[in-house]
């Protein structure tokens, strides 16, 4: 089988299998060998690694990963891609393709079976329609992983790496910096994909911390507080939290906690650091009914 990662061989295999792109699955296949090499370099794959690839498509990046890693597990939702993957990956005995929705499959169970439960590396050119749910599921379900190296919409990469007080800063930035160190690796132009997406893309690496840098009394409560604070971006932190309705702490008590933390009563949530959100959520946890 010819190496993929260029327009000619991609078109050839797609035509041979009469494949039609499914917009609903966010299918934009990489056709640039140079970018593929850089993604695999950024993921720091070694021959000891077990890699999880989300959405292998026709197997382009899978081939690059299989050349470097000990093993690759590739989870693909589209049944029409499975026979193509059987063909494009036929010369690799270290790849396992699983026909599943990545949001429904039990990834920890797969890691247990395929890597004795030891942490894996996630590498993917993600389907953009579910980027955030996939990242949040990987983190919140405590999947045993060392790093996530992914192609995402450029705007989403910016949100993941945003600093407090900037327009891109929000719940996603805080979730990412709670679990991992984010580093944008490179921007990728639309011409590197088939079909071309109508947004700019970027590769970002999230290196998982062994344990979070802050200590939240209750992790899911911390994220409930963060979401409540960003629900109404234009409101003050006090109004955002007291309007949320699901926290079970009175407005007076929230005001008291904000004052106790030495913050202005009119402060907005978007200026708080992860450390401040953690402190706030720990106080609110003690105060809640
Ligand atoms: N990795 C390939 C590449 O770089 O050329 C394809 C990337 S394409 C942007 C996204 C892939 O994810 C498609 O193959 C799509 O069918 C698959 N996909 C979409 N939703 C998925 C889901 N929920 N679970 C698993 N795969 C999914």
Task: Explain what you see.
This protein has helices at 7-16, 33-42, 60-68, 82-88, 107-115, 131-140, 154-160, 171-179, 219-231, 237-244, 251-260, 274-287, and strands spanning 29-30, 50-54, 71-76, 95-99, 120-125, 145-153, 180-188, 193-194, 201-208. The protein is an alpha/beta fold. Helix 6 (131-140) links the parallel strand 5 (120-125) and strand 6. Helix 9 (219-231) packs across helix 10 (237-244), helix 9 packs across helix 12 and helix 10 (237-244) packs antiparallel against helix 11. It binds S-adenosylmethionine (SAM). Residues 25-30, 54-57, 60-61, 75-78, 81, 101-103, 125, 127, 130 line the site of S-adenosylmethionine.
Entry summary:
Helices cover 40% and strands 18% of the residues.
Index terms:
single chain, 289 residues, alpha/beta, two-stranded antiparallel sheet, 12 helices, 9 strands, elongated, binds S-adenosylmethionine
Mean pLDDT: 96
What is the helical fraction, as a range of percent? 40-55%
**Radius of gyration, in angstroms, nearest whole number:** 21 Å
Strand order of the largest sheet: 4-3-2-5-6-9-7
Unique bound compounds: S-adenosylmethionine
Count every helix, treating DSSP H or I runs of 4 or more residues as helices: 12
Number of strands: 9
Order of helices and strands: HEHEHEHEHEHEHHEEEHHHH
The low-confidence runs, each spanning 5 or more residues with pLDDT under 50, are none
Structural shape: elongated
Give the biggest sheet. 7 strands, mixed
Structural class: alpha/beta
Measured between the Cα atoms of the first and last residue, the distance is 63 Å
Measured by DSSP, the beta-strand proportion falls in: 15-25%
């Amino acid at each position: 089988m010819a190496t993929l990662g260029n327009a000619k061989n991609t078109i050839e295999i797609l035509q041979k299998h009469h494949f039609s792109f499914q917009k609903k699955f966010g299918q934009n296949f990489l056709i640039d060998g140079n970018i593929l090499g850089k993604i695999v370099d950024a993921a720091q794959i070694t021959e000891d690694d077990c890699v999880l690839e989300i959405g292998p498509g026709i197997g382009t990046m899978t081939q690059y990963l299989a050349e470097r890693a000990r093993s690759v597990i590739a989870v693909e939702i589209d049944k029409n891609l499975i026979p193509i993957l059987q063909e494009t990956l036929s010369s690799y005995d270290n790849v396992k393709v699983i026909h599943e929705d990545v949001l429904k499959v039990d990834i920890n169970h797969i890691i247990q079976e395929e890597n004795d439960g030891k942490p894996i590396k996630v590498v993917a050119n993600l389907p953009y329609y579910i980027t955030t749910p996939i990242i949040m599921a990987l983190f919140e379900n405590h999947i045993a992983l060392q790093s996530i190296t992914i192609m995402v919409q450029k705007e989403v990469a910016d949100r993941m790496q945003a600093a407090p007080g900037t327009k891109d800063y929000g719940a996603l930035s805080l979730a990412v910096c709670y679990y991992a160190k984010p580093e944008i690796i490179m921007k990728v132009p639309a011409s590197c994909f088939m079909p071309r997406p109508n947004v700019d893309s970027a590769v970002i690496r999230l290196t998982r911390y062994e344990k979070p840098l802050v200590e939240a009394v209750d992790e899911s409560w911390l994220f409930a507080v963060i979401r409540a604070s960003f629900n109404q971006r234009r409101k003050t932190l006090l109004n955002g939290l007291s309007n949320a309705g699901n926290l079970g702490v009175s407005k007076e008590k929230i005001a008291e906690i904000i004052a106790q933390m030495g913050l202005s009563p009119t402060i907005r949530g978007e200026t708080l650091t992860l450390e401040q959100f953690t402190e706030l959520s720990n106080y609110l946890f003690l105060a809640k009914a």
